[in-house]
Amino acid sequence: MPPKAQAAGKGRGPAKRKLAEEFPLGEVLTDTSKKSWKLGAPIGQGGFGLLYLANDNSSKTVGADAPYVIKVEPSDNGPLFSELKFYMRAAKPDLIQSWMTSHKMKYLGVPKYWGSGLHEKGGKRYRFMVMDRFGTDLQKKFEETGRRFPRKLVLQLGLRLLDILEYIHEHEYVHADIKASNLLLSHNNPNQVYLVDYGLAYRYAPEGVLKEYKEDPKRCHDGTIEFTSIDAHKGVSPCRRSDLEILGYCMVQWLCSKLPWEDKLQDPLYVRDVKLQCRDNVSEFMSKCFSSQDKPDELQKFMEEVKTLSYTDKPAYQKLRSILEAGLKSIGTKDDDKLEFSSVVSSNGAGPSSSAKKTSKRKKVVDYKEESDDEVDGSPAKKRKSPKKKGVKESKTASPKKKAATPKNTAARPKKALVEMGTQTTPGLKRGRGRPKKKAEPVE
């Protein structure tokens, strides 16, 4: 069970949802644009949905080299519906390609949306979404390398994520759940990484109007507890600075193995308070994570820059990129577009070796984010009533006894990544997510 999210120590368990039934090989699904998709073998289960290999040519058998996957859930479940809202607004192939062209980018790590719809079988209705096929997730890589990434790789991942975040931020969304298990390598190119799982994506600026800062005690600690932002700990809806703060925590953990609050993840108030102390004194935070000779100055500068942002500020993405690029230059290298995963030691800037110990089991406490506007295919998604928020204009400006670390015994262990999608395979709701208040309306 996840830790209790409310300050008073009381929380509610996740709603019980139906599990998706397995479809036979060759089942044909037709999306809203009347395009047919044929299902291949299931490659695992994520949350309450099943993932299948798929092809857009219904006349051919779907083989192991299929380029697509299809996620299927019972139509009255909420997680996939939440993701669809983001994908249909911000992840259409032409939108992504246009952005890449205008920004002279080789690729952008945002999964493309290829189609969605409803499918009926045996008197039951299922919602499905077609996506790109991916490879392994970075959490698995993190464990395989002794819970440390090389400094060059960490800075390269930071640069890729800045590209991704700038894109989704400019399309009115924030991700709110950046972490290694939500970063997947391309199926065809191991040097490309994609940010997935938009179930918590929040539309922070519908029609360009920013949501105002408002604390809600009922929503405290949303996200993945070790990485979630201070805003989320206070029950504030995520914003652009929230994503960048989470990215900062991720980069520090990838480099030093363990964040200072990871021994008490079951106490979200403690985690919040330590993060507040670290934000107030970034230099002291870095000293807790790294030895003096291994301290990465660029990560301190990155976090100091993020610290200056107000709730509605637009981040200076290029300035943040320059900070990370300067870090690469300081270690005598540059971004060569090659992601090299290897075991590292403290001399590589990874911090004291003693930090690679077992930590508390990862806990996650979340509520699904709501939107008041009409959603997918014109169907409103009203899972929870929330107070109306005024728009504002955008600103310019006690753990268990520790053991030696091994991939088997480490903390924050990956969610049994699928071989192809990197999505959790354990049955049931994704760890710690709160329930939607009402069933999602079906997509027509």
TrEMBL record:
Reactions performed catalytically: L-threonyl-[protein] + ATP = O-phospho-L-threonyl-[protein] + ADP + H(+); L-seryl-[protein] + ATP = O-phospho-L-seryl-[protein] + ADP + H(+)
UniProt keyword terms in alphabetical order: ATP-binding, Cell cycle, Cell division, Cytoplasm, Kinase, Mitosis, Nucleotide-binding, Nucleus, Serine/threonine-protein kinase, Transferase
A GO molecular-function annotation: protein serine/threonine kinase activity
Ranges of compositional bias, category Basic residues: 381-391
InterPro entries: CK1_Ser-Thr_kinase, Kinase-like_dom_sf, Prot_kinase_dom, Protein_kinase_ATP_BS, Ser/Thr_kinase_AS
Domain Protein kinase intervals: 37-328
Chief subcellular location: cytoplasm
Example of a GO cellular component annotation carried by this entry: cytoplasm
Compositionally skewed regions (Polar residues) per UniProt: 343-352
Compartments in which it is found: Cytoplasm; Nucleus, Cajal body
Binding site for ATP: K71
Record has Cell cycle as a keyword: yes
Region (Disordered): 343-444
This protein's record includes keyword Cell cycle: yes
EC numbers on record: 2.7.11.1
Pfam families: Pkinase
UniProt record, GO biological process: cell division
Family: Belongs to the protein kinase superfamily. CK1 Ser/Thr protein kinase family. VRK subfamily.
Name listed for the protein in its UniProt record: Serine/threonine-protein kinase VRK1
Origin species: Oncorhynchus kisutch
